[in-house]
Amino acid sequence: MLPFSRDLREGNLLEFIDTHCHIIPGVDDGPPDMDTSLAMARMAIADGITDIVATPHIVEGYYDGSDREQRLAQLRKIFASAAIDLRLSAGAEVPMSTCLAGDKTFLKSLAINGGKFLLMETAETTFDQVAEAAYRVRLCGLYPILAHPERATFVQKQPGRLDEIMERDQIYCQLTAASIEGIFGKTIKKTSLILAKSGMIHLVASDAHSAGKRAPLLSTCYKILCEELGEAAARIIMLQNPLRVLESSKLERPAIDTGDIPDRGHFLKLFRREQSSDDTG
């Protein structure tokens, strides 16, 4: 694992680590050029983000991530020359098919900050396939973080199944901030809140791709989670666990303190009852 230290910056009460961001220009469907990467970095800093894990899409036959460190070194140099004080760590968004292939050397090379967590993209697949992919990742000595499960229809239909495989297969879950804010529609927002209020979420990240609709912003989502889950849970999900990812420390599953929320099962049942009439947005 690469060494990591995080000194709190004077005057900032909240400092976010964004564990999923497409900020490297010209490698995927993220920023097409350096100007866009610079704009994204400035937005992130203004929103309280101090650290970004660069997670380009790994696409077989197109981009394998082998030059990420060189690209990040260039990005750091350009950011520094522009007086942008933003720390960058290497990661990748790894497709489930690559995880299923189980190439230990390759998967370990894509781990976040050279540590023990691997960001696994949620495909439109089945729970059994997710569990199998997670198993292959675990055989490599890594822990899978499932990216944006709230956007997958099989999770939207049966969120309780996700809880089952999380416990059984040592899977961590990461929501996208824009999903919680409702930017991707009503069903995705509802699924996000069901998962969060059921205590099934370990992390929230921006999954930013641009300086527009999919920007690197986290502060609004943090406020929403404070209101919906309580501040203690929001801090675990958006402040403490992201730091643990960079340090390769065990992630904490938050205890939800929402007063009027009876239990996890209540939300899963409520979601199943209401989904049939929900506007997918």
Tertiary shape:
globular
Strand order of the largest sheet: 4-5-6-7-8
Quaternary organization: single chain
Strand content: 5-15%
Helix content: 40-55%
Instruction: Give unreliable regions as ranges.
Output: 7-12, 270-281
E-strand count: 8
Task: Give a quick account of the main beta sheet: strands, pairing sense, barrel closure.
Answer: 5 strands, parallel
Global Rg = 18 Å
Count of discrete alpha- or pi-helical segments spanning 4 or more residues: 12
The overall pLDDT average reads 90
Order of helices and strands: EHEHEEHHEHEHHEHHEHHH
What structural category characterises the helix and strand content?
alpha/beta
Instruction: Give the end-to-end Cα distance, rounded to a whole number of Å.
Output: 41 Å
Notes on the protein architecture:
This protein is an alpha/beta fold and 281 residues long. The chain contains 12 helices and 8 strands. α9 runs antiparallel to α12. The longest helix is centred in the last third of the chain and has 17 residues. It starts with 15 loop residues before the first strand and ends in a 6-residue tail after the last helix.
Task: Please outline the helices and strands.
Elements: E1 16-21, H1 34-46, E2 49-54, H2 68-81, E3 87-90, E4 93-94, H3 96-101, H4 104-109, E5 117-121, H5 127-139, E6 143-147, H6 153-157, H7 159-169, E7 172-176, H8 177-181, H9 186-197, E8 203-205, H10 219-229, H11 231-247, H12 264-275
Parallel strand pairs: 1-2, 2-3, 4-5, 5-6, 6-7, 7-8
Helix pairs in contact: 5-7, 9-12, 10-11
